[in-house]
Design a protein that fits this description.
Length: 416
């Protein structure tokens, strides 16, 4: 009860707190659906309880903040729903729609007791951000800027943005280092965070570092292991996607197993579902260079062989002509003509030996580059109308194509 001192009614702090507690309890008896950004989950493993920090921001500034509690049993249930629907657990830095009761405690103050969180709302928020980023990039006319760059004939020098301990990066290296054709790649690793809100400035910062020395690289590869929809949300960020879209050299990505393409992947020159697939893409670029070279070597070999045959025939005719002429002249100038014939024969034989040696050397080199050697190792050559297919744009749905294997030919029809 309050006391009266010098005509003043005085309440204790506990009395005020209990009055507030009673008012809050009578006013907010129901559960309410509330939207807020979960700045931190604050999960304590020893008890299993969570004490999320909830905020609301406007123009980048916090305009409201409140503590909350999510008891262990509710957390376990909600977390399982997130894993089932989103592919990963509840985490920091996402906007959530949650159901909670409003309470006040004299000792701990205001708090929200969370009893449920809707994982489908998180998906909706991510999709909303994705659409807005795409709209901005298209409005600025830069959505296809990186895709319109010319890709290097041989993408040998790589600037890699990743985490050194990433399994995805390990898979990528395994393929490019162990390729059976011994293609050699050079790379520089630019370490960056690859998940969560902090990944956005981290990746942009490394792109800026690479931009200062683009002359040293052929392409930039952003490599990350697998993850769910929430883990990939940072790649829908407008600022990150813009940094990739306007980058001066081609950017290629292999950031996870998700089938829902992020905006960063959309604007990149090339995106692969996995780091392993990205490594295969680079190796295929080397193949596309090697096959025309092999075909050119084959044409050179055939032309050289034909030229040598012509020269050999011409020399034989010269030799025969000299032989008949020498018989007529021998009667009068036998000794002189004999000397000339000997010189000519020696010269002819020497020239033939040199030409044949050159031909043998060229044939040996061309045999080493024989396309059959690549076919024997499991690769193939796909043709349409007798010409090798090196670009997707040269075929369309309904075209019939042939694929040449080491042993046999497979005929196919384009359906997609």
């Amino acid at each position: 009860m309050p006391e009266t001192v010098s005509d003043k009614t005085i309440f204790s702090l506990l009395e005020v707190s209990r009055s507030i507690q009673k008012t809050i309890a009578e006013r907010y008896r129901s559960l309410y659906w509330i939207k807020a950004e979960m700045n931190k989950l604050n999960h304590y493993t020893h008890s299993g309880h969570c004490y999320p920090e909830l905020v609301e921001k406007k123009d980048g500034k916090v305009v409201a903040e409140m503590r909350s509690v999510l008891w262990n049993a509710d957390f376990q249930r909600v977390n399982q729903q997130f894993i089932k629907i989103l592919g990963e657990p509840l985490r920091d830095g996402i906007t959530i729609l949650f159901q909670a009761g409003i309470s006040y405690d004299p000792l701990y103050g205001f708090s929200l007791k969370i009893v449920d969180i809707d994982p489908t709302f998180v998906l909706g928020e991510l999709e909303k951000e994705k659409r807005e980023s795409v709209r901005k990039l298209q409005a600025e006319g830069i959505f296809h800027s990186n895709k319109n760059l010319s890709f290097p004939l041989l993408p040998k020098r790589l600037a890699i943005i990743s985490v050194e301990t990433s399994k995805g990066l390990s898979d990528f290296f395994k393929i490019i280092h162990r390729n059976p054709w011994k293609y050699k790649f050079e790379y520089t690793l630019f370490p960056a965070l690859l998940q969560g809100d902090k990944s956005i400035p981290s990746i942009i910062r490394q792109l800026a570092n690479i931009a200062e020395k683009t002359g040293e690289f052929d392409t930039v590869a952003i490599i990350r292991g697998g993850g769910g929809e929430v883990g990939l949300s940072s790649y829908n960020n407008y600022q990150l996607a813009k940094a990739i879209a306007i980058f001066p050299i081609p950017v290629i990505t292999g950031i996870g197993h998700s089938t829902n393409e992020t905006v960063s992947e959309m604007v990149a020159y090339e995106n692969a579902i996995t780091p392993s697939e990205l490594a295969d893409f680079l190796i295929q670029k080397f193949h596309q260079f090697a096959i025309p070279v092999d075909e050119a070597l084959s044409r050179i070999m055939q032309a050289s062989k034909s030229q040598f045959e012509q020269e050999e025939s011409r020399l034989a005719q010269y030799s025969q002509s000299i032989s008949w002429s020498s018989k007529a002249v021998l009667a009068t100038e036998g000794h002189k003509l004999s000397t000339v014939i000997n010189h000519l024969q020696l010269f002819s034989m020497q020239l033939l030996k040199e030409r044949k040696a050159d031909l043998n050397n060229i044939q040996r080199l061309l045999q080493l580059a024989d396309p059959k050697q690549l076919l024997k190792k499991g690769f193939s050559i796909t043709k349409i109308n007798g010409h090798a297919i090196t670009q997707e744009s040269t075929v369309k749905v309904g075209d019939e194509i042939e694929t040449i294997l080491y042993e046999g030919i497979v005929y196919s029809k384009i359906v997609r």
